[in-house]
Amino acid sequence: MFVEELADLLTDTVDGGASIGFLAPLDRRAAVAWWEERAAAMSAGRLAVWVARGEDRLLGTVSLAFPDKPNSRHRAEVVKLMVHRDGRGQGIGRTLLTTAEAGAVAAGVTLLHLDTETDSSAESLYRSAGWTRLGAIPDYAATPSGELRPTTIFYKHVGAGAGADAVAVGT
Questions:
Q1: What span, in angstroms and rounded, lies between the C-alpha atoms of 110 and 166?
Q2: Which of 28, 59, 131, 162 meets the CB 3.0–4.6 Å disulfide criterion with 87?
Q3: 111-162: pLDDT as tens digits
Q4: Contacting residues for 1 by C-beta, under 8 A, at least 6 apart
Q5: Which of the four CATH numbers 3.40.630.30, 3.40.50.2300, 3.40.1260.10, 2.40.50.140 does domain 3-161 have?
Q6: Single pTM value for the model
């Protein structure tokens, strides 16, 4: 795992104002420790992580979190889709999202879900990628500056479970 580079990406994302669970300023050592803590989940098969690399740095990442309960093995959560500020607007987020969706299908997952800050650019990405908006929870999470904001919940059927509300992976 590229812990140091992932930590740089995480701190850049938080510094850029993305509401991904951290308050600013995010200490780089805390970012490294957070990624190191993910290693056990990756080894256990409960977390899959993909990265997008530029010429000199990681430009993005996305993860899938797989539940450990027997009645929920058909679903996964898309977590921590991040794109470095230098890479935004280049389709990296969409590519990472498509990669995570394909990874879910390969793992036998048929239902994905995620949450994102309401009215964020990420919300626009999910809508345009065929995700279905379920609703919003007011004051759900704080932005890096500490302001409470609503969070929108999305879901998408993929693979064998893809329904009329989903866009086929790879199209």
A1: 11
A2: 59
A3: 999 999 999 999 999 999 999 999 999 999 999 999 999 999 999 999 975 7
A4: 35, 38, 39, 42, 49
A5: 3.40.630.30
A6: 0.91
